[in-house]
Amino acid sequence: MRIRRAAKVGAPLVALALMAGACGGGGDEGSENKETLADIPAIDINKTDRSELKDGGTFHWGINEYPPQYQVHHTQGNLANAERIASAVLPQAHYFDKSGEPHPDKDYVLSSEISEDGTELTFELNPDAVWSTGDSITWEDYAAQVETVGGHRDNTDKFDIGDTTGYERITDVEKGESKFEVVFTFKKPFAEWPRLFDALYPKKYMEDPKKFNEAYKKAFPVTAGPFGDVEFDDTAQTVTVNRNEDWWGDPAKLDSIVYHTYGNDALAGVMNNGEIDGFYLGYDAAAYDQLKDADGVRLTKAIDNAYRHMTFNGGEGRLLSDVKVRNALVHAIDRSQMAKATLSGVNWTTDPTVNRLLRSTQTGFQDNSEGYGEYDPEKAAEMLDKAGWTQEAEGKVRTKDGEKLQLEWVIPSDLQNTADEAEIAKAQLKEVGVGVNIKTVPINSYFPEYIVPGNYDATTFVYSSTNPYAGYYAENFTGPVGETEDGEPNWGNNLHFFTTDEINAAFEELSTLTDPQEYAAKANEIDRLLWEQSMAVPLFQRPGLYAVSPDIANWGANGLASIHYEDIGITK
Asked: Which PANTHER family does this one have (predicted)?
């Protein structure tokens, strides 16, 4: 993106939220699919003009978890389903089209301009935009969010912030010519600025740590979107968002959206029974087989802005804190077998190319795994020997200083593919003397009680993104973002609990690059660094397979594009 003085928001650079992945794609009916990622469209949402949609109705959206926290800047709010619900009822400064091109969301921001040197950003706010309290959305709301999420407050350690990226670079926020103009000053350019304020919260919920940490727990005390009046049913595990009758933009075509929580194994059945209108099917072979020829079901096909990976907890004092041991584990596991086991029952490409930071529709997409991603159990055994983990006899678990190399591999319930991946890894790691204890935990406890606090050694899940910037993944690989109240490093959304100075510096540089080719080159350099550290080891780029009722429009596989909730509707 070339930045000119007073340049309007322009071209994207290149392309996270955290999500328990439940699905994917692969061979069709036992035969290998020769299709490549390049053959798959960028978006598939049954795009329909608003004039062709009915007024009213309810869209029943199936999801696989019942998120506890809807302050998405909180460490526990960094879940894809929490973000999808929040996006229907909260302001966002920009949206992205199918090419990843950013645009001001004029319901909130009429224009956004960056100075020639990239250090001064100006938003002209929509004066019609109001919170559900009736208060105007003003520069003060933006300033309060910068203060908190950027870690600029004196009591920052009391706010459980997941990621400060971009906000921490803003040194000043000022009122412009009126309360509806806000001017941000950056200490150094932040090329990904259109991804800031993807969810804006009212000033008072950003200033008070108790309100920040607790007010949006299974609650939306204040909203400002095409939908609002959010209802939670803990018994049914549903979240309902209702049309905002005071909305100043194009009115929502639907009366309401109901998010229904089901175990992954149940979603296809309730879809087939007409109890929900759509869900992410992904790589669930049984679901695909059940729905591929079902009446009243359309399966989307597009690139998804997500990838599935294997993650190791390399925190200080942990069993896998030694990078050489992590590298050895990657060589001991046949990732292609793991992927094929997951991608074996749906009509999706078997193309194995994966990049952590770039999707296959983006500039510079390539595989950077050479030397670190190959399946080589003999090499793995040699590396473990050199790392001091010795095996007394074949079939025995390796030990070092009296400690066993026995991994706690934590998986969520109701995800068969996750269980399959763990079993494959267990069998293959056994061959090189590494023990695995598979621990199955309730899906709603998986992230908040095990993965986020670091109570695991290894696991598999999905990183997904709501914007096209590679730098959005920085929160998953950099840190720490400060200290906890106990004085310990706060790793925020970095669930590996470690990083390197080189990775931190590379992400810092990435966010300053405005030339798309330079940006892509740096993204690939970072992906290589992550291979060297065995962080979030990729398994496959996640398929954009959704099951959706044919009469539902403007919803499905969005790829890099934002969802326009007011445009989701039922065709006439």
From this structure: MONOACYL PHOSPHATIDYLINOSITOL TETRAMANNOSIDE-BINDING PROTEIN LPQW-RELATED, PERIPLASMIC BINDING COMPONENT OF ABC TRANSPORTER
Q: Output the pTM of the full model.
A: 0.81
DSSP-derived secondary structure for 167-206: GGGEEEEEE-SSTTEEEEEESS--TTGGGTTSS---THHH
Q: Copy the structure tokens of residue 55.
A: 């007024």
* Cα four-point dihedral sign 116, 118, 119, 124: positive
Q: Which of 512, 412, 413, 508 is nearest to 452 (CA)?
A: 412
Lowest mean pLDDT among 50-59, 148-157, 160-169, 335-344: 335-344
CA pair distance 253, 54, nearest whole angstrom: 7
CB-based contacts of 565, cutoff 8 Å, min separation 6:
87, 88, 225, 226, 227, 252, 257
CA dist., res. 537 & res. 552, Å (int): 36
Please give the C-alpha separations between residue 129 and each of 93, 109, 180, 247, 468, in angstroms, as whole numbers.
12, 9, 10, 8, 26
d(CA 515, CA 94): 20
Q: What six digits make up the tokens of 89? A: 């009822």
3-state secondary structure of 222: coil
For residue 480, give the amino acid letter. P
Handedness of CA 498, 501, 506, 507 (dihedral sign): positive
Nearest residue to 251 (alpha-carbon basis) of 228, 274, 279, 285: 228
Whole-number pLDDT of residue 272: 96
- Backbone φ and ψ of 268, nearest 5°: -65, -40
User: Which positions ≥6 away from 381 have C-beta within 8 Å?
Assistant: 328, 332, 391, 432, 433
Rg of the chain over CA atoms, in angstroms?
23
Neighbour count for residue 6 (Cβ, 10 Å): 12
Residue for token digits 């326009």?
564
Which of 162, 163, 71, 43 is CA-nearest to residue 562? 43
Give the integer Cα–Cα distance in Å for 526 and 520.
10
CA distance 46 to 60: 17
Range scoring the smallest mean pLDDT among 65-74, 263-272, 341-350, 549-558: 341-350
CA-wise closest residue to 271 among 260, 282, 285: 260
Per the listing, tokens 């997941």 go with: 162
Whether 272 contacts 20, CB under 8 Å: no
- Given a contact cutoff of 8 angstroms between Cβ atoms, the answer to whether 398 and 389 are in contact is yes
Instruction: Pull the structure tokens for residue 513.
Output: 């690059």
Q: Which residue has the tokens 């540089």?
A: 509
